Amino acid sequence: MESHQDLLDFGAFPADFYENDESASGIDAFEIQNCFDVFEDSSLESKITDKHATMPSIRAIMWFRRDLRLHDNLALHRALKFVEAHKDTESVQLIPLYIIHRPKRLLCGVNRFQFLLESVGSLAEAIASRGSRLIIARGEGIEVFRRILPAWKITHMFFDQTIEPFATARDERVRELAASLDIHVETTRGYTLYDLDQVMEKNGGKAPATYTSFLRTVATFPEPAKPLPIPSSIPGWEDSREGLYKRLVEEEYLNVSHEQAISTQSQSWIDVIAGPQKLFRVPELSEFGFERPERHSFIYGGENVALKILQEYCKNEGQVVKFEKPKTSPAETCPSKSTTSLSPYLYFGCISTRTFFHRVRDIQNRHAKASSAPPVSLDGQLLWREFFHCNGHANPHFDKMEGNPLCLHIDWRWHTLPKTIEEEEALSEDEKLAKAQFEAWKEGQTGYPWIDAIMIQLKEEGWMHHLARHSVACFLTRGDLYISWVRGLEVFQERLIDHDWSINCGNWLWLSASAFFTAYFRVYSPSTFGKKWDVEGKYIRKYIPALAKMPAKYIYEPWKAPVTVQRLANCLVGKDYPFPIVDHKIAMRRCMAGMKASYAARKYGEQSHETNASPHPKKRSREYDEVKDEK
């Protein structure tokens, strides 16, 4: 399994994720030598010293991360207040910075990366329109800072904290580096509505284990603060982009010998950081090895897009007030009114959680008697986000079965992947079958049109409805294939535009009945669930053209259509569309036997222990269960 550290923050990837060859960075030994030839003047050091002596006494960085917006940006607000407080007594510069990184391994698909670039571009335009410039550096965060902080003579840093355990550890390394350079660091907490550490403290030092207990805990806190406005201006900084690049080269040259500089990756690192034109600009998809998709997802990145979506959705106040997630349709083609589709914007911080929350609450308060309530209401969805983030914040093994105290150990198929050719060759016949079935699920080739259409939408658009995610997750795990939820989590983390580590982990734990939800026998039927929302199969026809002419009677189960009907529809099952890879009823019985045994064993984390889980659950979890008897 890939490390969860590899996907969350594009300024947070391990250094070994880079394509580590000189051709990829677009430089050669001649270029490196040429860059350093300009420094043969023996008076270089004094010239640089004199130049740095004239620099502003305060040079601050505003480090944007998952807060790609100007509205309600706590860290930016703090930085601007700092500049305002010192501008009359000292010379001050504020440099807006974003660090972007593309991993070598495909843990981030093209749709999400395209959304990120669009969002960074939108932020750059917004900053430029207010008098400043966004610097986009490239590379692993700590390595970038090791070079730019001393080279640019930074004295202060401002950024909003991330909350995942591995991200907080990364942030601590940044703080330690800053402290070693005598740089003052100020951080804010603007990613969630509540301070999750305070929530855990209020709950006895641990994350609330149920949504209901989470609601009880946060009910004791004041309502989240109102969002901050967009700043009217952002002070500019004097250096040109070329000047910032030159300072990097100068600093690197002064700290290593000429021979070291041209024989190591020092210059390569600098050129990676600055980009191919050495201008710190927003990159193109192709620069990171991506091909532009033939068809753009219906989701476009950026703060302006996010705010417009919220504005348009909230124009219909009745829609907001009556929103109930289980009643929204997973079969509506997007964009639709069935959902806001704002989850990607929340993840990347193109819209603030407080802005969304208060806009919805204001409408609900005007129609209090008619409004739906958590867990199904629109504000309830934001509180689900908080709940999963709180559990992810508390649990560094949230994305694993092993070592995860919340996770029931289940003997899933295709859980432990072979690491060598020998292990691959030694796979049992069932594991080989599980591997093939997993690939069929991943690529939308299961033979169940409802499942396949959802997975094809995910691949093409980077998104699918909440209930559609439930359907395919149940099919992969406890419903049909009995394959590890960790494999599904990895596919979602690559292909979802709105992938969020804590939410992805929490939902997979829930839907596989490994944690939070115990009514494992409540299964989504791959043949009948979609019919509730789309009798004609329009959703299936959109994403599976081979079934476009299949009569509605057979659209969810085309293998049952007589051959004459299949021929008239120009779709022969087994030729133009696959037969089902499992018989649902038989497969589900096998899954139920395995789940029953695992619940009886009651093994969680690394230990077997007594819990309130039962091998024969009599009561189903009602916190957020849309599934009836779908067997």
From TrEMBL:
<dbReference type="GO" id="GO:0003677">
    <property type="term" value="F:DNA binding"/>
</dbReference>
<keyword id="KW-0285">Flavoprotein</keyword>
<feature type="domain" description="Photolyase/cryptochrome alpha/beta">
    <location>
        <begin position="58"/>
        <end position="193"/>
    </location>
</feature>
<dbReference type="InterPro" id="IPR002081">
    <property type="entry name" value="Cryptochrome/DNA_photolyase_1"/>
</dbReference>
<protein>
    <recommendedName>
        <fullName>Photolyase/cryptochrome alpha/beta domain-containing protein</fullName>
    </recommendedName>
</protein>
<dbReference type="Pfam" id="PF03441">
    <property type="entry name" value="FAD_binding_7"/>
</dbReference>
<keyword id="KW-0274">FAD</keyword>
<dbReference type="Pfam" id="PF00875">
    <property type="entry name" value="DNA_photolyase"/>
</dbReference>
<dbReference type="InterPro" id="IPR005101">
    <property type="entry name" value="Cryptochr/Photolyase_FAD-bd"/>
</dbReference>
<dbReference type="InterPro" id="IPR036134">
    <property type="entry name" value="Crypto/Photolyase_FAD-like_sf"/>
</dbReference>
<dbReference type="GO" id="GO:0005634">
    <property type="term" value="C:nucleus"/>
</dbReference>
<feature type="binding site">
    <location>
        <begin position="498"/>
        <end position="500"/>
    </location>
    <ligand>
        <name>FAD</name>
    </ligand>
</feature>
<dbReference type="InterPro" id="IPR014729">
    <property type="entry name" value="Rossmann-like_a/b/a_fold"/>
</dbReference>
<feature type="binding site">
    <location>
        <begin position="339"/>
        <end position="343"/>
    </location>
    <ligand>
        <name>FAD</name>
    </ligand>
</feature>
<dbReference type="GO" id="GO:0043153">
    <property type="term" value="P:entrainment of circadian clock by photoperiod"/>
</dbReference>
<feature type="region of interest" description="Disordered">
    <location>
        <begin position="604"/>
        <end position="631"/>
    </location>
</feature>
<dbReference type="GO" id="GO:0071949">
    <property type="term" value="F:FAD binding"/>
</dbReference>
<dbReference type="GO" id="GO:0032922">
    <property type="term" value="P:circadian regulation of gene expression"/>
</dbReference>
<dbReference type="InterPro" id="IPR006050">
    <property type="entry name" value="DNA_photolyase_N"/>
</dbReference>
<dbReference type="GO" id="GO:0005737">
    <property type="term" value="C:cytoplasm"/>
</dbReference>
<dbReference type="InterPro" id="IPR036155">
    <property type="entry name" value="Crypto/Photolyase_N_sf"/>
</dbReference>
<feature type="compositionally biased region" description="Basic and acidic residues">
    <location>
        <begin position="622"/>
        <end position="631"/>
    </location>
</feature>
<comment type="similarity">
    <text>Belongs to the DNA photolyase class-1 family.</text>
</comment>
<feature type="binding site">
    <location>
        <begin position="381"/>
        <end position="388"/>
    </location>
    <ligand>
        <name>FAD</name>
    </ligand>
</feature>
<dbReference type="GO" id="GO:0003904">
    <property type="term" value="F:deoxyribodipyrimidine photo-lyase activity"/>
</dbReference>
